[in-house]
Sequence to fold (718 residues):
Amino acid sequence: MSFELALPLILVFSIGSLFVAGYLASWVLKKDQGTSAMQAISNAIKEGAEAFLRRQNGTIGMLAVLLAAVIFLLYGFVRGHHDFDPVPTALRLAFWTTLSFVLGAACSVIAGYIGMWVSIRANIRTASAARSSLNDALRIALRGGAVSGLFVVAMSLFGVGGLYWLVSHMTEVPPAQIPLLIVGYGFGASFVALFAQLGGGIYTKAADVGADLVGKVEAGIPEDDPRNPAVIADLVGDNVGDCAGRGADLFESTAAENIGAMILGATLAAALQKQGMAFSAGVVGVMLFPLVARAFGLLASIIGIFAVKTREDADPMQALNRGYYIAAALAIAGFFVATKWLLANPSHPDAWWMYFFCGMIGVLTSIVFVFITQYYTEYKYRPVREIAEASQTGPATNIIAGIAVGFECTLAPVVAISIAILASYKIGVAALPGGGLFGTAVATMGMLGTAAYILAMDTFGPITDNAGGIVEMSKQPEEIRKKTDRLDAVGNTTKALTKGYAIGSAALAAFLLFSAYLDELKNYGAELTSVNLSKPEVFVGALIGAMLVFFFSGLAIKAVGKAAYVVIQDVRAQFKEHPGIMQGTEKPDYGRTVDIVTRGALRQMIAPGLVAVGTPIAVGLVFKQFGVGAEAVAALLMVGTIAGIVMATFLNNGGGAWDNAKKYIETGAYGGKGSPTHKAAVVGDTVGDPFKDTAGPSLHVLIKLLATITLVLAPLFI
Fold:
C-alpha cells in the first residue's frame, strides 16, 4: 500500500470518528428524560455549566487573541528572518505559527464544549434509565462520555492532519520542515487546556469543599441533599472540571505529542536518507506514522465502546474493563499494520517490528499505570484502608496518613516510566542508527492509542455522579439510588484511573517533546547536544523549572481555598437567613451559589495561568542576553518536567486515596456515615479535593505547556 494513502486515511478516519460521535450523541439524546422533578434538577445543572463555560471561554478567548498578537509581533518584527527558517520571510513564519496557534486554541475550545454539552444532557437520561435497567444506564453514561472522547481525539487528529495538508499545498516548504510551521497548534491547545483545567478545577473543588464542610460536617446532612444551597454548584463542577477540563487536557496531549513525534520521525528519516538507508515510505511516510497510529487507535476505541454491556447483578467495572481490553487489543493490531506499512526499511529489515515492540511497551505502560492507580486509590487495597483506619483518631491522623500515601505512591510510577523510556530507547537504537529517540516517541504513541476510550471512561464519572445527585434530589426510591451509587462508585474509579493514565502519558510525552525541542534547535542551526548545569545561568534555569511546579501548585490550591471560603459563607448565610431550608419548607437559592462560584473560579484562574505561560518565556529572553537562552530553557523544561511528574503523581493519588477512604467509611466501616471517624475522613477528603481535581490535573497540562511553549518560541531564544 502506497504511503501517499496515509494522509487521506488520517483525514477519513478523523472525519468518520466525528460522525460516530454525532451518532452517539443522537442515540443518547433520544432516551427518556425522567420525571419533571428530575428534569428540574438537570436543567439547573445544565444552565449553570453552560453559563460558566460561556464566561470561561470568553476570558480564554480574550487572552488567546492577545497572545496570538504577541507571537505574530515577536516572529514578524522582533526576531527577523534567519537563513535556517523553513520559509523565506519573517512575516510568513509569523503567519503560519500564529495561524496554527489560533486553530489549536479554537479546536480545543470546540472539542471541550461539545463533550460537556452532551454530558450535561446524558446525566438525566442515565438517571431515568436506572429506574428500569442498570445496563441501559451504564451504556448511556459511557456513550455520552464517548462523544467527548471521540470528539477530542478526532478533532486533534483532524487539526494536525488538516494543517499539514494546508501547509504542503500552500507553501514550498520541504515536507520534513512542515512540523516546524505547525508547532503552534499544540501550543494553542495547551494554552486553552491550562485555563480550562484550572478554571474548571477551581470551580468544582470550591463547590465540593463548600458543600461538604457546611452540609456534611456542620449541618450533618447527606451528600446531594436538596437542602444544601451548594449542591447544584457541586454537580455543575463535575462537568466543567472533569468533562471540559480533562477533554482540553487530552486534546492538547494528543496534538502536542503528534507534532513532537512528527518532528523526531522527520529528523530520523532525513538523516538516514542522507546515509543511503532510506525508509520505503520516505520521509513523509515516517512523519505521518504517528497520525496513522492515532487513526487506528480511534477505530479501536469505537469498537471497544460499542462492546460494553453488563448484567443487572454484575460489576459494571468489569464491563468497562472488558471494553478497554478490546480497544487495547485492536489498537495493538492497528499499530502492527502502521509500523509494517510506514516504518519498513530495506537496509534494516528488522526495524519495523522493533518499533512495533516499542509501541507495545507504551500500551503495557498504560495498563501498568491503571493497576498502580487502582492500588493506591481503591478501598479494597491497603493504602486507602490505612487512611480510613487512621481517621478513627481524628482529622490530623487522617491527613498524616493521606500525605504519607501520596509520597509513597510516587515510587511505582517513576519505575514504570523509567523502564518504558529506557527499553523503548534501547530497542530504537538497536532498530536503526540514531533511532533511540524515535523509539520513545513510538512508545508514547502506543500509550495514547486508546486515548478516546480512556476519555470516555473519564467523562462517564461526572455523568454517573450527576445521575446519582438527580436521583437523590428528586427523591427517587432507594433501589434506584443503589443502582446509581454502583455506577457512581465505578465512575470515581474511572476518574482516578484517567488521572493516572494522563500523568503516565504526560511523562512519556515530556521526554518526547524535550527531544523534539533539541531537534528543532538543530533545524534552526543551533544544535544543543547536552545541557550543562555547571553553567550558572543554566543551573538557575533548572532551579526556576523546579520552583515553578511548586509555586504553580500553591497558587492553584490557594485559589480553591479562596473560592471555597466564599461558598461556605454563602451557604451558612442562606441557612441563617432562611431557617425553612433545613426544615424542608423553603428552597435554597441554588443560582446565587452557582454565580458566586463562577465569578470566584474565573477570577482565581488568571494568576497561576499567567505565571505558567510567562516564566519560560522570561527565562529564554533574559538568558538569551548571556548567550545561553536556548540551553537555560532546556534546563527549565527538563527539571520542571521531572518535578511536575512526581508532584502530579503525589497530588493525584494522594487526593484519590483520601476520597475513597471517606467512601469506604460510608459503606459502614468504622462507624459509617455521621460517625466521628466519617467526619474526620470528610475533612481529609476536602484537603485532597484540590490536590486531585485542581492542582494535580493542571500539572499534567503545565508539563506539556512548558514543552509546547519552548517548541513554538525556540527560534526566539537562539
